[in-house]
Amino acid sequence: MNIELSKAFGTVVRERRTQLKLSQEELAHQAGLHRTYIGMIERGEKNIALENIHKISTALKTSISDLFIQLEKSQS
């Protein structure tokens, strides 16, 4: 697992969540995931599956590609 990549992705998720003024609990509920799992993603502690990336992007009202575009921008 690339920890730096996971942390960067978690930061992207956190930034989008806060833009929408959602708590971790609200995001988790909308995505059908557990709140602690969202926290672990945001801290870069989980290597997230594509299926869960899709659930989170849907709950964040964005596309998977937009999340990855933000991830790429943060890496450059």
CATH class: Mainly Alpha
From the spread of the alpha carbons, the general shape counts as globular
Oligomer: single chain
CATH topology: 434 Repressor (Amino-terminal Domain)
Name the helix and strand elements from N-terminus to C-terminus, one letter apiece.
HHHHH
Name the helicity range.
over 70%
Average residue-wise pLDDT: 96
Count of spatially separate domains: 1
Helix/strand/pairing category: mainly alpha
Instruction: Please state the second-level CATH architecture.
Output: Orthogonal Bundle
Distance between the termini: 20 Å
How many beta-strand runs? 0
pLDDT below 50 for ≥5 consecutive residues: which ranges?
none
- What Rg is obtained from the alpha carbons, in whole angstroms? 11 Å
Share in β-strands: under 5%
Largest sheet: none
Please name the fourth-level CATH homologous superfamily: lambda repressor-like DNA-binding domains
What is the helix tally?
5
